[in-house]
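User: Can you predict the 3D structure for this chain?
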Amino acid sequence: MIPIDVALAFFGTAVILALAPGPDILFVLSQSALYGARAGICTTLGLASGLIVHTTAVALGVAVLFQTSALAFTLLKVAGAAYLLYLAWLSFRAGAVLSGTGKVDFLGYGALYRRGIIMNVTNPKVTLFFLAFLPQFCDPARGSIAAQVGMFGGIFMLATLLVFSSVAAAGGAIAARFNRSQKAQILLHRCAGVIFVGMALLLLFAHR
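Assistant: Here is the predicted structure, written as structure tokens:
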């Protein structure tokens, strides 16, 4: 069992880390700005679900593979970058459709949830971060390290949900204002495309 003071200290640290600007928080902001706060929350739930995979990987020792194998790390980050470029293409295409006086159909909350999962799971930097971060709070005297990693991973997910849901609410306010104008919608889609390209490049050139 994790002591309350340790759990609270970890939660506070996780909140600060979640607030730091990064690809995930930009992803939530861009999706909520395009489609509203609910869309941002669905994206957040997807990202948080992806953290289950990283937590499990650390608990089972699989994360060590990405730390020791350059090939495994490279393959996963290339897959993640390719997916982000695909999202960029969808955003630019949506902007082009709108500029042609067409209408872009909302892809659905389920699709946004899946996007969040895929984006998070295909980022090996998250796995390596969890591998370096979570064990620091574990103590063999408290029992199973794997169980402690799982509990700390759950606390980190809670912090992520709280912070990113707030970001989604802020993005929803942007959507309420900008979605009244077709030109503003085009601008948002193009900005989202640029963000996705930037995130893809950052991931592609990331090192272990």
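Residues 23-204 form one domain. Residues 28 and 83 are 16 Å apart (CA to CA).
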